[in-house]
Amino acid sequence: MLTRRHFVISTGALFSAPLPTILLAGPTSDKSKWDIWDVQVTPANYDPATSNPWGLHRRFLPQRVEANAGLVPGDIHVDAVARYLYHIGTDGTAMRYGVAIARGNLYEPGTYNIRWKTKWPTWTPTAAMVERDPNLYGNLSEGVDAGPKNPLGSRALYLFVGNRDTYLRIHGSPNPESIGGRASSGCVRMVMAHINGLYENVNAGSTAFLYAAEKGVTAQS
Fold this sequence. Notes:
single chain; about 220 residues; alpha/beta; L,D-transpeptidase catalytic domain-like; nine-stranded mixed β-sheet; two-stranded parallel sheet; 5 helices; 11 strands; globular; disordered N terminus
């Protein structure tokens, strides 16, 4: 027989118990596959200065060059006209890489803080991207799992202004043929094998300078 006291306790327990949380599954990065993916995106017998299965112009292959005087070691400078990224060394030199930049007016020159970096990132298009290109991004609004076909590729450097995430990235790309052109929705793209090498030498907290691009002209060899 249920007493009033039993009913009150049971009812209290019902309403005081935490309700189950419904978690929406987001994109994931399977860490157990990272090494496998790295092998997939790295040419056999890889030599950064000469390996070129992507058919890039030779000037877009990684090269060590003399750096301008007075630049801070560790910082990144993106020459958007020539489509070069320079990572400044401690010995008066810089590693230079070929890049692609954003198409049209989506490229945002400025000074950014590399707040953090990650291997094999997941990716979710911003609301602005979905609104701007619904046919391209609408079906991806829930995000894309990490992997060689992910738009951010194998590595990503996240660009901030103060504490604000700009949603701009320096990242690898599954479309190496775009290097030297204007292709992205705001980010700076690199060949995945190239950014894998850069990534190991970039520290969070470094500064990235993205310089202004020319208007409507594709960089020439």
